[in-house]
Write a structure and sequence with these properties.
By secondary structure, the chain is mainly alpha-helical. The chain has one domain. It is 71% helix and 0% strand. The protein is built from three helices and no strands. Helix 1 packs across helix 3 and helix 2 crosses helix 3. The model has no long low-confidence stretch (mean pLDDT 86).
């Protein structure tokens, strides 16, 4: 049964990722629900995976910057980035 909602494309990509990784749905089944091709769903899932990786990296960088900020004060260093 095709999905009839008018979900924004970005939300649909994330939903496809969740359906595939957290619920074990096949890309073919997800494609049928979203009335898309399996290759489109595959690309959506890859894009969501990249976004997830970038988000984790951004969090790690924020934590590292905080730690470096504290250390730089102790070492009396200044950032060379303007």
């Amino acid at each position: 049964m095709p999905y009839q909602g008018k979900q924004p494309k970005e939300s649909a990509k994330i939903a496809a990722y969740v359906l595939h990784h957290e619920f074990g749905a096949s890309q073919k089944a997800i494609a049928e629900v979203f009335t898309s091709s399996q290759s489109t769903i595959s690309q959506w899932i890859k894009e969501a995976e990249y976004k997830k990786q970038i988000g984790v990296l951004e969090n790690d960088l924020a934590q590292a910057r905080k730690m470096v900020e504290d250390l730089s004060k102790k070492l009396r260093l200044e950032s060379k980035i303007l």
